[in-house]
């Protein structure tokens, strides 16, 4: 496990001894940076003040930015969103440019040949995943600038889809993670 926001090559501010060797790894120590694979123990903040802006739920938020209008990327964005929501994470799916087609009603990606192929193999398709995401409370946002850029302003959107900008998306995600597809 690594410190929140730090890769495995960086030292942990809460860590002062290497578990494997017992060696002192305080910031003053020459071995304050550990090789890949070193297990770091970093306690989670204990109070709301230690979490910073937004509290623990903001750190737990996953933002998914869908820029591409291909079936494969749109489908996997919904797979990630549904999986994270099923684990209890707050999820914001932000679609921009051709990715906005994922949030259209009816969704044109359902007519893609890949949709029929994956559903025939027993994999949940876009229609099923989008409905599951809505049921689990995933926030769906279509980018206003993306709709304009792709001349999709007249695109009918699914019920519950918000139209907003990138600032709204980034504010909703806060210090959480962002995945781009």
Defining key terms:
5-stranded parallel beta sheet; alpha/beta; 5 strands; 181 residues; Hypothetical Protein Ychn, Chain: A; 2 domains
Architecture overview:
It is a single chain. With 181 residues, this protein is an alpha/beta fold. It folds into two domains: 8-43, no CATH class; 55-180, DsrEFH-like (Hypothetical Protein Ychn, Chain: A), CATH 3.40.1260. 31% of the residues lie in helices and 12% in strands. It has helices at 48-51, 55-59, 71-86, 113-120, 126-135, 144-149, 166-173, and strands at residues 62-66, 91-95, 139-143, 162-164, 177-180. It has a five-stranded parallel β-sheet with strand order 4-3-2-1-5, sandwiched between helices. Strand 3 (139-143), helix 6 (144-149) and strand 4 form a beta-alpha-beta unit. Helix 3 packs parallel to helix 5. The radius of gyration is 20 Å and the shape is globular. Mean pLDDT is 80; it is low at 1-18 and 26-48.
């Amino acid at each position: 496990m690594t410190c929140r926001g730090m890769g495995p090559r960086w030292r942990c501010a809460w860590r002062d001894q290497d578990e494997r060797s017992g060696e002192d790894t305080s910031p003053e120590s020459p071995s304050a940076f550990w090789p890949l694979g070193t297990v770091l123990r970093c306690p989670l903040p204990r109070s709301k003040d230690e979490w910073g802006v937004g509290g623990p739920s903001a750190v737990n938020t996953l933002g998914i930015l869908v820029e591409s209008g291909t079936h494969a990327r749109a489908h996997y964005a919904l797979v990630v969103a549904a999986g994270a929501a099923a684990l209890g994470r707050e999820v914001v799916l932000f679609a921009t440019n051709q990715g906005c087609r994922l949030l259209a009603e009816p969704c044109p990606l359902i007519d893609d040949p890949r949709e029929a192929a994956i559903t025939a193999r027993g994999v949940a398709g876009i229609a099923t995943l989008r409905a599951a995401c809505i049921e689990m409370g995933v926030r769906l946002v279509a980018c206003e600038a993306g709709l304009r850029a792709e001349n999709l302003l007249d695109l009918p959107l699914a019920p519950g889809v918000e139209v907003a900008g990138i600032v709204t998306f980034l504010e909703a995600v806060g210090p959480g993670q962002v995945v781009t597809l």
